[in-house]
Structures are given as structure tokens and as C-alpha cells.
Amino acid sequence: MRRSGIKIMAGLIRLLSPLAHVMLACISLGVLGYLCAIFITVLAAHLLLVLTGESPWEISFGATIALMLVIALARAVLRYGEQTCGHYIAFKLLAVIRDKVFAALRKLAPAKLEGRDKGNLIQLITSDIELLEVFYAHTLSPVLIALLMTAFMTVWIGRLHPLLGLTALMAYLTVGIAIPAGIHRRSQGLGPQLRQQSGELSSMVLETLRGLPEILQYGTGSKRLKELDQRTGALAENEQKMKVLSGKNTALTQTIVLFFDVVMLTTAGLLTLRGQLDFGSALLAVVGLMSSFGPVIALANLGSTLQNTFAAGSRVLDLLEETPVVTEITGRPQVGFTGVQAEHLRFSYGEDEILTDLSLAIAPGRITGITGRSGSGKSTFLKLLMRFWEVQEGKLTLSATPVNQINTANLRQLESYVTQDTHLFHDTIANNLRIAKPDATAEEIQEACRKASIHDWILTLPQGYDTPVGELGDTLSGGEEQRLGLARAFLHSAPLILLDEPTSNLDSLNEAVILRSLRQEKEDRTIVLVSHRKSTMRIADQVAVVEQGRCS
Predict the structure, then answer these.
(1) Angle at CA 131, nearest 5°, toward 129 and 137?
(2) Pairing of strands 393-398, 401-402
(3) What's the confidence (pLDDT) of residue 473?
(4) Of 183, 263, 364, 483, which cross-links 303 as Cys (Cβ 3.0–4.6 Å)?
């Protein structure tokens, strides 16, 4: 979704509303701090005029020295306060935004995140959010400070002479608005392109690290390295363009500042020669302008960096405003488990129709086997039962209640779902199992592992259940991962267990042990078993064959 810079800024400012009072303090401190910095220089010029007797102000030499010391101290305190407020806002909001992003991801998962570029998501969660610190700490308050300072200094210099006030206004508008606007237009498109390229490079690096065994096996390392070099080179080229624009921006800004300094000096000199302005006022006006460019130069320096910041902000706002496929249900009466009924289900992923007219009854206390060709919709049916996706047509009820009318937490309590690929976190075996039941005792964990035929193997490990499994379970075999996934399902102790190819990575001996455990479990639970294996289907009390989205 393409947004204009104004819309992005408006969206980011809306996130600021809880900290508006801190932002007001930051702006106030910033304005007062810049006034102190400017008038230290102006008072120094006044000292020289006092010595020559040409100062338009009736402030003595000693009083001026004392005032300068007070202002210098105040400048330090005000600057510290401004920076503290600005960075407090920035880092507090980054924490709030991260919380909102993770909440949005939770709402979008799993339907909206299936097949999504994980590298781009990581880029968004990490560096895109970090870039917003530039907006909140170094963009928003400086813009408002510059506007207020421009108004104040224009009026102050204009009171000395209207033509000098107009000259000052032109200088501020040129440096603070015209230059950054021009640089922003010249860098249009570079920011979003940089964020996209960076995300794609992160995805490729992530894929390469995970696929190292295959890359080494098939000797495609040089090809992969070449692709990485190409992507890195393209990213570096665009970053170089941004740096060049930033350098030109700085050079142009300094040139324009010097130009207007000369214009102000010339104008003040001419007015003095014509008798329209006294020498003291002319000097104060020139010194005032020369010392007051700080706030607008800060704006000028933003021209080349805002593209990156706005691109990051747009990506974050897009995620926060994305509509989830499935919304969480709360506030409904609790439901127990008395069976499942599917009637004439139809479901499509986009234009790809998966289920066309599926009807199936799952009675409690029985094992229902579902078999069929790959892509016939078996796994999709389980996902609809879990309400990872919404039923599009037909009816799917659990305990005679449509699944989209059951509290989401209640539905999760009633179902245990074991997928073909078990995800293991970089933690111990025990903690990976406790995901299914955080308060599980050691005895409960061991009993679940016995049912999954993995307890004896765990005891052979040096640290037993406290053994780390490595990132993504890299230290385990596919069969070991699958049995840990089954142990999670047994530990969760839900009345309905959904198993998607639970024995695909197991040898016949372990398969037999697990199938025996499943048969024993059916006394207290209902089991839906998806598998291609005929040996697995033998324990089923009823077998449904799914072909072309229908049951037979």
C-alpha cells in the first residue's frame, strides 16, 4: 500500500497521542534552549556596542556578562531536558510500537502469515521499528521547534526593520523547507526500495543459513554466493545514492546559509548608509540571523533521511492496519466436547479451490482416519477445525456449536494439533514440552514422553530433559522432533487430538508403540488421524477418503 509522506506522518503522530504532554515539554524546552543559544551570541555583540556607545539596549556591561552566564547555564539545562524528553518519547514509543506489532502479528497468524517472507518480517520487527526513533526523537520536535523559532526570529528581526525581517523569513523558508523538499523529491522511491532490498537480502541470508546442508551437498555454494553478492551490491549502490544526496544536501545548505548571511549583511549595511537603521540595530540583526540557523539546518538535514524513515513507517503502519482473516472470539459460554460435524464445506485459497463439498461426522471416543492424495484438502480440514482459517461455505460445528462462535481460548483448550513439521524453540526439551502445559510437573512430562515413545531416548542424553535442542531443533532427527510434537499433544490433554501425518518420520517399531498409545488414549479422547500410511490407518474406527475436496 503506497502512502504519501503526510499520511505516514499523520499515522505515526497518532501513535504519539499518549505522550503528547511529554512532546509539548520537549518542544518548549527546545525553543527556550535555542533562544538561549542565539542570544548568547547577540549579547556578545551587544557588549561590543556598549564599549563603542552604540548599543540600542540600555543594559550595562556587567549586567550583560551576568545575563550571558545565566543564559549559558540555562542553555545546558534546557538542551539536556529537550534531549531527555525527545529520547524518552522515542524509546517509549518504540516499546509501544513493538507491542502493537507483535499483537498485530498474533491476530494475523497463521492465515495471513502463511507463505509470507520471513526475512522481511524480521526486517520490519527489528530495523524498521528502530528507524522510527529518528522520526520521534529527531524529526517531529525539530520541525515544530523550527517553525516556532522561525516565527519568533522573523518578528524580532522585523522589529529592527521590516526589510530585515523579510530577509530572515526568506532565509529560514529556503533552508528549512525548500532545500529539504527538493532533496526529498530527488530521493523519491529510494527509501522504499532500500527497505525492500534490505528485507529481501535478510530473507536470502536466512534461507541460505537454513539450507547449508543442501547447498553443500549439491555444490551450489558459488552460485548462492554470487546471488548474495549481487543483492548486496544493488543495496550498496542505492545506499551510496542516498549518501551522495545527503552530502549534496549538506553542501547546498551551507552555501545557502552563507548566501543569506551576505544578503542580510548587505541589506543592513545599505539601510545604515541611508540612515534608515542605526549601526547597533544593524549589527544585532546580522548577528541574530547568523546565530539562528540551527533549527532550520536541522530540518534541512532531514531531507535525505526522511525517505528511509517514512518507508519504514509505512511498512509498520501497513502491518498494524492489516485486517486479519480470523478474529479472536471472547465472551461466549464455555463449550465442552461432544463431537464434530462438517456439512458441505467449501474452501479456497484464493482461486485455488481445495474443499468442494466435504461432509464428515466425528463421534466422541473414536479414532477417525482421513486419507487421500496430497492436495486433496485433508490438512486444510484440520486447519478449519482449529479455526486458523474461516469456513467459507457450509457448516462446521464442534459440540453442535459453529467453530466461529466458540471462544478462541476455549477452542484451543479443546483441541491438540500436531502438524507434519514440529517447531522446536532454542530451549530445553522440558521447556519445549511445557508450551503445551506451562504448569506441567516433571511426572506429567515424562508420562507424555512415554506415550510418544521418546522417554527412554531422552534419559540417554547427558542432561536428560534439560538438554537444549538447538535452534529450530537442529540437534534432533526428524523422528525425534515428531515424537516431541506428539508428546506435546499428549501433555496438552485436550479431548480432541488432531494429528497430521504423525508417523511419517518414524520407523515401524516406534510407529507401533505410538499407535498403541493412541488406541489407549481414545478411551478418554477423540482422535482425528490424517495419514497416507495404511499401517497407521489400521487403528482407525472409521476411515474417510478425501478426493477432490469430497469425502467418501
Answers:
(1) 105
(2) antiparallel
(3) 63
(4) 183
Question: Strand 496-500's sheet: what is its strand order?
Answer: 415-418, 496-500, 526-530, 367-372, 542-547, 550-551
Spatial contact of 265 and 168, defined as CB atoms under 8 Å apart? no
Q: Which amino acid type is present at position 95?
A: A
With H, G, I as helix, E, B as strand and everything else as coil, classify residue 464: helix
Query: Which residue has 507463505 as its cell numbers?
Result: 115
- The end-to-end CA distance of the chain, in Å, is 44
In this structure, what C-alpha cell is assigned to residue 276? 534608515
* DSSP secondary structure of 402-424: EGGGS-HHHHHHHEEEE-SS---
Burial of 127 (0-12, 13-18, 19+ CB in 10 A): middle
Instruction: Return the C-alpha cell found at 88.
Output: 524518552
Measured CA to CA, the distance from residue 173 to residue 186 in angstroms comes to: 19
**Which residue type, as a one-letter code, is found at position 191?**
G
The rounded radius of gyration (Å) of the Cα atoms in the chain is 34
